[in-house]
Design goal:
Largest sheet of chain B: none
CATH class of the largest domain in chain B: Mainly Alpha
CATH architecture of the largest domain in chain A: 3-Layer(aba) Sandwich
CATH architecture of the largest domain in chain B: Orthogonal Bundle
Number of strands of chain A: 22
Distance between the termini of chain A: 56 Å
Oligomer: heterodimer
CATH superfamily of the largest domain in chain A: P-loop containing nucleotide triphosphate hydrolases
CATH topology of the largest domain in chain B: ABC transporter involved in vitamin B12 uptake, BtuC
Strand content of chain A: 25-35%
Number of domains of chain B: 2
């Protein structure tokens, strides 16, 4: 092997955040002139890995080799010096500056005054060369998102990036722009530069990359040549759990009262694009409805519109006949385990007992005559800690200090304790270890057996299959199939997840 | 989370952290005083003598201490108004403007003879002052909450509007303005609308005590009421607040308006208790100083009391220091500014240390800020 075959090698990179092992001995390498796909779900550790590469955080252990030489990347400036360019998923541009100004921003200059002329000439040449056309003198906030991305890419190329990292570049692009991007990427690799292409969209990864590295739960699953991969295989590597979950026996529940009814609901995502289109769904009492699908196909919007955090642009949502208009803070009505427990589900700097009542802080017995009753709050915390087996020294410690699984138990205790008629669990097991996963599953199953309607959203196909009475598969905001949980098989669902299945009657 | 960690406490033990958070402003203030002393020494004056004169000027006699209390009144009220905002995650920097509006409100009902008993007339003047200020605070509050406009910009801009509005209102021929005056000012407040003087021979009015009571009240509200609970939650994690059913937009607007009311009360007390009239430009920076007070206090209403008293002692003693030792009068403001800078500075370095020990949730920030951190801390 020639010494310089690899533009980049990352070896055994480990990075730990409190309670989370974000990267566990991950190794990847990227050859010169190669497009390497980095595939993994949200939260799998892709972004952390790339932040390490770009010097935004330091690995706990492991090393990075650039062009065969060990590189100490302690800051983005160092990364740039090593020829690493990064296009973040959320652009890091200064909106009020022009494209050109953004591109030269941060480049040290020996002259006391800015001389934009040579920079402009060089930029225009780059635009020409890679067919990524932007007007250098337009303020960035006036540019369409696609062109903002070109600015980011040109920024990296202007700095002579040999290794270009594109973090979910196509999520903001139109199909035509995506094609343009692909052409530019090919041109880059023809010149011997390397591109790391991060995505969880399988189709694009198949099209553009030569090899794919898959990570899951912070671990390296494997690297395979794209030619030998199929979308199905990649999907399995990306979402599969290492430990098989068994489907637990469950009593048959007769009363099939419809609890959640969604009629012709259309909901927009943050960008204003419909995430759910004319969506119809009914969940009955005593039923776990599993929502399968690759992340980002409308799952988040589905959960948020049911609990009232996101307003549908059309259609009606009712829970037990009652229309949802506002945020439903009554946990005895809807229990909601949000997708991101740390950002949404908990106030990390509040203590455990306070976190257990953030929705009840205006209700007796926690408030009497307008005054918070700390003894009652603490007593409630003690009983919840016992009932849900939350491992914490007491209710007085900050939620931040608990492990992920126990943080999730705090959320579950708050949301499910008053026995709501509808439970919504959005990715409730993400980032949890196996023991914690099983305990979450048992809790949800108990909820079902008690007669609650449960909406269970997960990107982990195996757990959806193990837990659900009924499974719907979401693809681009539409239901690809409505299957019986006991009889559905992996390959059918897998195909539907990729948008290839046909509608199957329930 | 394959590797589960035991619930983990900060390296600096729990009590250590608490102590640190209380010690931080004190260290900052001490550093500020030392730095100020260096500056005084540079100007050729013995800093110990200068500070001695300052202490004497602030605490040397009952009269001088009453002066400290009088000066603390707007700082306490304005400071607690800003502090409430800090707790909720907004920077309500419009105290200066609210004070003018409070003064206008008080003047509107305090100048005409309403034939009310003093208690009622005073209460009316204060309340109308607060209402005027609340209406003023509605503007930045609404813009911040429902339109996403940065509240620092709007409140500071509106301060200027309030200053000019007041100047206009107290200039002839507006009905509130004094006739044939040498300086733009309003007519005198009715006797019945003036706050009583508590100590003969001084200008001690009850403002400081009202301020103290309000600070304690707000501490209690933040700690022991659902309103305060949700306010703190809003400040720490707005996502979680929204998710748990708090109408976050309405709440932000309300918090800014309450802060405005406190500023208005401060202004109304200044004019009914001390000035007896509304003068053009009668507030000169006290509103901004109360932002500094809240900042030094870290948003804690009880700490606001300490910070406000400290600042007003500096200001009251500063005058004596200037007269007795010849240190320039602006030195007081310089020392205040140094204290604020050091308190913030100490806060940042300490947060960085703490974040090294615990808070690695935000890899971007921590990584960018402390790239030389020890990789084995966790």
């Amino acid at each position: 092997m020639e010494r310089n075959e690899f533009a980049l090698q990352m070896q055994n990179v480990t990075k730990r955040f409190p309670g989370v092992l974000a990267n566990d001995r991950i190794s990847l390498d990227c050859k010169k002139g190669e497009v390497l796909g980095l595939l993994g779900e949200n939260g799998a550790g892709k972004t952390t890995l790339m932040n390490i590469l770009y010097g935004l955080c330091q690995p706990d252990s492991g090393q990075i080799l650039v062009d065969g030489q060990e590189a100490q990347i302690t800051s983005p400036l160092k990364a740039i010096q090593y020829g690493i360019g990064m296009v973040h998923q959320h652009f890091k541009l200064v909106d009020s500056l022009t494209a050109l100004e953004n591109i030269i921003l941060g480049i040290p200059s020996k002259k006391p005054l800015l001389d934009l002329a040579p920079a402009r000439a060089r930029l225009l040449k780059l635009c020409e060369e890679y067919e990524l056309f932007v007007d250098p003198d337009t303020n960035v906030w006036r540019l369409p998102v696609g062109q903002q991305q070109w600015v980011e890419i040109l920024k990296a190329l202007y700095r002579n990036a040999k290794i270009l990292v594109l973090d979910e570049p196509t999520s903001v692009l139109t199909p035509a722009e995506s094609d343009q991007l692909c052409r530019a990427v090919r041109r880059l690799t023809d010149e011997g530069r390397s591109v790391i292409f991060i995505s969880h969209k399988l189709r694009e990864v198949m099209e553009i990359t030569q090899r794919v590295t898959i990570i899951r739960d912070g671990k390296l699953i494997g690297t395979i040549p794209t030619k030998e991969a199929t979308q199905k295989k990649l999907a399995q590597m990306m979402v599969g759990r290492p430990v098989t979950l068994v489907r637990k026996p469950r009593p048959v529940i007769d009363k099939k009262e419809p609890i959640l009814v969604m009629k012709d609901v259309t909901v927009n995502d943050d960008r204003g694009i419909p995430a759910l289109k004319n969506f119809n769904l009914t969940i009955h009492a005593g039923e776990i409805l599993g929502v399968a699908g690759v992340d980002g196909n409308g799952q988040r919007e589905l959960a948020e519109c049911i609990v009232g955090l996101r307003k549908p642009s059309s259609g009606t949502i009712t829970v037990r006949g009652q229309q949802i208009t506002n945020v439903t803070a009554d946990p005895s009505f809807i229990g909601f385990i949000p997708e991101d427990r740390q950002k949404t589900g908990l106030v990390l700097d509040f203590n455990v007992s306070e976190n257990l009542i953030i929705k009840d802080c205006k209700r007796a017995p926690y408030v009497k005559k307008g005054i918070l009753q700390y003894p009652a709050i603490k007593k409630h915390a003690r009983s919840m800690i016992k009932k849900f087996n939350i491992k914490t020294p007491s209710g007085d410690v900050k939620a931040r200090t608990l492990s992920g699984g126990n943080q999730q138990k705090v959320v579950i205790a708050r949301e499910l304790n008053p026995e709501p008629v509808l439970d919504i669990a959005s990715q409730p097991t993400r980032g949890l270890d196996m023991g914690a996963v099983v305990s979450v599953h048992d809790t949800l199953l108990d909820e079902r057996n008690r007669g609650a309607a449960v909406l269970f959203i997960s990107a982990e196909l195996q757990e959806v299959m193990a837990l659900s009475d009924r499974i719907i598969v979401l693809f681009r905001g539409e239901i690809m199939g409505d299957l019986d949980g006991g009889t559905a098989d992996v390959s059918t669902i897998g195909e539907m997840m990729l948008g290839q299945g046909s509608e199957v009657g329930a | 989370m394959r590797v589960q960690k035991k619930p983990k406490f900060i390296r600096v033990p729990f009590i250590g952290e608490l102590a640190l958070s209380g010690v931080r402003p004190i260290i900052g203030i001490l550093l500020g005083i030392i730095a100020g002393g260096v500056l005084i020494a540079l100007s050729g004056i013995n800093p110990f003598k200068a500070y001695g004169a300052m202490l004497q000027g602030a605490f040397g006699s009952l009269q001088s201490f009453s002066n400290v209390l009088v000066r603390s009144s707007p700082l306490l009220l304005g400071g607690v108004g800003v502090a409430l905002g800090i707790k909720a995650g907004v920077w309500n920097t419009g105290i200066e403007g609210y004070m003018y509006l409070g003064a206008i409100g008080a003047a509107v009902v305090g100048i005409p003879a309403l034939n009310l008993p003093p208690v009622l007339h005073i209460a009316l003047a204060l309340i109308v002052g607060m209402l005027f200020a609340a209406a003023w605070g509605l503007i930045p509050g609404f813009l911040r909450a429902y339109r996403g406009v940065n509240e620092v910009t709007t409140t500071i801009m509106l301060n200027y509007v309030a200053i000019f509005l007041t100047s206009w209102l107290v200039s002839e021929p507006q009905p509130l303005a004094e006739i044939d005056s040498f300086y733009p000012m309003s007519k005198l407040f009715q006797e019945s609308a003036q706050l009583p003087i508590l100590m003969k021979g001084t200008s001690l009015h009850p403002g400081a005590f009202i301020g103290l009571a309000v600070c304690i009240l707000f501490y209690f509200i933040l700690r022991y009421t659902p309103f305060g609970f949700q306010t703190r939650m809003l400040g720490i994690n707005p996502n979680a607040a929204r998710y748990s059913g708090v109408n976050t937009k309405q709440k932000i607007m309300l918090i800014i308006m309450i802060g405005a009311m406190m500023g208005g009360l401060a202004g109304a007390i200044e004019v009914t208790g001390l000035k007896r009239r509304v003068y053009m430009d009668f507030v000169t920076g006290v509103g901004y100083e109360s932002v500094a007070v809240a900042l030094v206090a870290g948003g804690n209403p009880l700490a606001v009391i300490a910070a406000a008293l400290f600042f007003s002692a500096l200001k009251a003693g500063g005058a004596t220091m200037s007269i007795q030792t010849g240190v320039g009068a602006p030195m007081t403001s310089v020392i205040i500014a140094l204290c604020v800078l050091f308190v913030i500075g100490v806060g940042i370095s300490e947060r960085r240390r703490l974040s090294k020990a615990v808070d690695k949730d935000e890899p971007d920030k921590v990584g960018a800020a402390g790239s030389k951190e020890d990789p084995n801390v966790i």
